Amino acid sequence: MVIGKSVQRRDLPEKLTGNAKYTADIKLPGMLYGKILRSVYPFAHINSINSSKTLKLQGVVSMLTPFDVPTGYIALDMPILDTTVRFVGDEVAAVAATDEYIAQQAIELLDVNYSPLPFVLNVEDALKSNAPKIHETGNLIGSEPIVLIRGDVEEGFRNCDHIFEETFTTPAHSGSALEPRAVIAMWEDDFLTIWKCSRGVHSDRKAISSALCIDPNKVRVIGPHLGGGFGNKDESRLAAIVAILAYRAGRPVKIELSREEEFIAGRCRHSTSTHIKMGVSSAGIISAIQVETIMNTGAYLASGPGVIRRAGQAALYLYRCPNVRYDGYLVYTNRPSAGSYRALGAPQGHFALEVMADKIAHSLKIDPLDFRLMNHVDATGQPGIRVTPPSEIIDTQPVEGGIPFSSNGLRQCLDLGSTAIHWRNIKASNYSDTSVKKTGIGMSMFIYRGGPGGKAQARVKLNHDGTVQLITGLMDVGEGATTVLCQITANELSIPYDAVRATFADTYYTPNAPVTAGSSATFSTGLAVQRAAGLLKNSIISFVASNLDVLPSDLEMKDGYVYRGSSSNTKLSFSDIGYLTRETPLEINASLMPGSKDFIINSFGAHFARVEVDVTTGQVEIIQYIAAHDSGQILNPSLAVNQVEGGISQMLGFTLTEEMIIDDLTGGIVNPRYLEHKSPTILDIPPIEVIFADVLDPEGPFGAKALGELPSIGVAPAIVNAIHDAIGIWVHDLPASPNRILELLDNI
Amino acid sequence: MNRPVYTPISLDVNGRNYRIRVDHRWTLLRVLRDSLDLTGAKRGCDRGECGACTVIVDGKSVYACQILVMQVGKRKVCTIEGMGTVSNLHPIQRAFLENDGAQCGYCSPAFILATKALLDINVDPSEHQIKRALSGIICRCAAYSRIIESAKECIGTLDEKSKN
C-alpha cells in the first residue's frame, strides 16, 4: 500500500537542484520583453494616448492600447483593455521591445490624456445613491444582496433568553506568491502557445481563446511549475495582452510582473465588514444566527460571487441551529480587484462567528470549549427538511437542513485538540501573571467544502516499458497534487510508486480539467484517477487472460506482475505486457461528476492557540499551536502536515500583521512590498502540532476529503480568542497588530 | 535612461570561468539568469526583500539582485547549479528532500544555499542561529517548519568534501 505513506514529493529533486522550470525561467529564440503601463488614477476616462515618442524609440516592436485593442472580453466586466480605468494600477497599455529597459522606457514615453473621475474606495460610500458608478450595472453586484435562509430567525430571536450583536472587520491582504506572474506567448502561423503562471490550463485556454475570439483548438496553454498561487493566478488578462503583443510583433513575447505589480494587480483577499446577531438560551443553546456581510470586491468582480457566498457558510452550518439568515453584499469600489485567495471568504466568516461564539460563552460564563461541544453540527447535519430533489447531487455548501454528512469528525477534532493542549487543566489553573507578558489560550472550529469540485477527468496508459502514464489536465499549484494522484494510481494497480509517470497541465496532451480550487484536487481528480486506474487494471487482466487463454478470474495483479493463480509461477510483468501491447497501448479515460446525492461532503477542524501578549508593546507571540483536522484519510501524512503548518503560518499574517493599505487621497496602495505588507518570516513561526482525526469518508478516494484551504480558516479566531483570554480585550478588527492592541488597552 | 555600456568581464561561477560582455546596469541576478542560463536563482522582488535570488559570494549568502555584476570582480559565486544534481544530491539537498522542506519550491535554492553558507562557518548552529541565518528569505507557502527541520538535519552530516 503506497496510500497513507509519506512518499517524497514528486518534483522535489528538480526543485532542490534549480532544474525545475517556472514560467519566467523559459526563454525562446527571438523573444521580446513586454511592460504594462498602469493607471495613476483610481477612476478615469482615457481620452487619448500619444505614442509618437514610444514608436520612435529603437527596439520597440509592438504596442497595444485601448484604442487599437480587439473587442473581446476577459470577463463580463473586463475587456482586454478599456478606455475607462478603475483602480490605481489598472492596465492602460502595453509595449514589447528587444529588452526590458527599452520596454520600460517605452511605456514611460506614452503620453496618456486622462479625465479623472470622482472615485470611491469604501463600500459605505459606494452604496450611496449618488456614488460614482464603477460599472454601468451599479456598485452593488446583482443589485441586491444574496439572501440565504433556513427556518425563521425572527422566531428564533423571540424564543431565546439572550441576544448578542457585534460587528467585525477584516482588511484586504495579498497572497503575493513568491513567484511574480509571468506569461510567454508564441504564435506559429495561427496557432498560439502560452506558458503562464496558472491554476487551471484548460480554463485559461477557454478564457484566452474566447477573449481573442479564436478557436480553442488553436490555443495551447502550458502551466510550468508554479511558484505559489494560493487561489490566485486564475486570471488571463495578462495572457491576452501578451498574446496580442506577440501576434503584432511576429515574435514571442514575455512579460514578468514586478513585485509591486504583483501586489497591485495580483488579487487580494476581499475586505469585509460582518454584522452578526445570535440568539441563545440561558443554558447556552443557539436558537438563531443572523449574519450580514458587506464585501469589497474592488474594481472587478473576479471570483467575488463565490467568495461572498462562502463567507456565509460558517453561519449557516458550523453550529446546529434551526433558524439562520445570511445576507451578503458584494460591492464594487475603485480599489485593486480582490479575487480568489485560500478558502475564499471562509476565514472572514469564521473570524466573525468564532470570536462571537467566545464572546457569548464568556458572557454566559460557559467554557468556550463546552459552548462548542453543546452546539457544533454533528453527523446528522442541520435540523430541517431536505429541499434538493433525491436525484440531485447535494451542494457542498448547503443551506437546507435534513441532510446528513458523509462523515463528520468535528467532535473528534475538538476532543483531540483540547486534550493535546491540556485545555481543561490550563483553564482550571487560574493563571494570572503579574509580569508585562500575559498568557492566554483560545480556540476556534471550522467547516469547509469536502472536495467535490467540477467534472473531473483522468487518463491512464500502460507504456511500452511497463510504466504507467497518468495524464490529467490538473495544475499542481505546489501543494503536491501530482504526488498524491500518482500514489492513487500506483495503489490501484499494485505497482511501485516510481513506476507511475505524470503528465499534467498542458492542454495539448491532457483531457479537460477544472481549476485547482476549492481544495478539490485529491478528492475530485483523485476519484477520476482511481476509476481510470481501476479500469486499466481490468483491461490489463483481460489482455493477459486472452493471451494465456485463461479466465480473468484466474489472474491476480500484485507488485507489478499479473500472476496466474496466487501460488503459480506463471506470471507476466508490466514490462512484458507493455511490450506485447506496444502497437495498441492499453489506455483508459475516466470522467465523473464528484459528489453525493445522499450526503453533504465537508471537512472540519479545530485550532487551539496559546499566546503571550506584551502589554507594553502590544506584541502577540504564539507559544503553542495545535491544529486538529478531519480531512478523512490522509493519503500522504508528510505532505498533509506541511500543508497544515504552511496554511497556519501564512495566515498568521492575516491575523497579526498584514494589511493592504490604500491612500484615501490618491487611491494608490501605500505598501505594495513584502516588508511593509508584513508577510510572516521564519522568525514568526510558532511550534505547531498537527493532529488528524481518524475518519474514513465513504465518498472520497481511499476515504480522503479536502485539506488544502482548511488550515487557513481557524487561525485568526483562535488567536484573537486567546488574546482576550490573556488581556481581557476583544479584537473586532484585524489585523491584531501591536498598534491595535495598545489602542484597545488604552481604551479599557 | 542611459545608453547601455557593455564591458567584457570574467566571472567565477561554480568554479567555472565565464567571459561575458555585460551592461553596467545589470545585476548579478540578471547575468546569472539571462546571460549564463543559471535560472535556479529566482527573481521574487528585485529589491532585496524576499531572498529568492540568494547565492553565495565568497562564502557569504547574499541577494544577487542587490549586487551589480560589475561589483563582483574576482569573487567566487556559488549558485544552486553548483550543488548536487538530481541523481547525486548534495547532503543539504537530500535533507530538504527527506524532510519535505518545500512546497512550490520557488524559494528552495535560496534556503539551501543560505543553509550551506551557515554550516560552512558554523558546524553546530542552534535552532535560533539557523532561523536567523535563514530569516532573509521569504517562503510564502510558509513551509518554514519543514525548512527548519531540513536545516537541522544537516548538522553533523557534512564532510569536508561537501563544504566549499
What is the number of helical segments of chain B per DSSP (H or I, 4+ residues)? 6
- Main sheet of chain B, how many strands, which sense, barrel? 5 strands, mixed
Oligomeric composition of the shown chains = heterodimer
Q: What's the CATH architecture of the largest domain in chain B?
A: Roll
Provide the β-strand percentage band of chain A: 15-25%
Quick summary of this structure?
The complex is a heterodimer of chains A (about 750) and B (about 160). Chain A is an alpha+beta fold. Chain A has three domains: about 15-20 and about 30-115 and about 180-255, Aldehyde Oxidoreductase, domain 3 (Alpha-Beta Complex), CATH 3.90.1170; about 270-450 and about 595-745, Aldehyde Oxidoreductase, domain 4; about 455-590, Aldehyde Oxidoreductase, domain 4.
Describe, in plain words, how this protein is organized in 3D.
The complex is a heterodimer of chains A (748) and B (164). With 748 residues, chain A is of the alpha+beta class. In chain A, 28% of the residues lie in helices and 24% in strands. Chain A has three domains: 16-21 and 28-117 and 181-256, Aldehyde oxidase/xanthine dehydrogenase, a/b hammerhead (Aldehyde Oxidoreductase, domain 3, Alpha-Beta Complex), CATH 3.90.1170.50; 271-451 and 597-746, Aldehyde Oxidoreductase, domain 4 (2-Layer Sandwich), CATH 3.30.365; 453-592, Aldehyde oxidase/xanthine dehydrogenase, molybdopterin binding domain (Aldehyde Oxidoreductase, domain 4), CATH 3.30.365.10. Chain A has a seven-stranded mixed beta sheet. A five-stranded mixed beta sheet of chain A has the order 9-17-16-15-10. The mean pLDDT of chain A is 96. Chain B is α+β, with helices and mostly antiparallel strands and 164 residues long. Chain B folds into two domains: 6-82, Beta-grasp domain (Ubiquitin-like (UB roll)), CATH 3.10.20.30; 91-159, Orthogonal Bundle (DNA polymerase, domain 1), CATH 1.10.150. Chain B has a five-stranded mixed beta sheet, sandwiched between helices. The mean pLDDT of chain B is 95. At the A-B interface, helix 1, helix 3 and helix 18 of A face helix 3, helix 4, helix 5 and helix 6 of B.
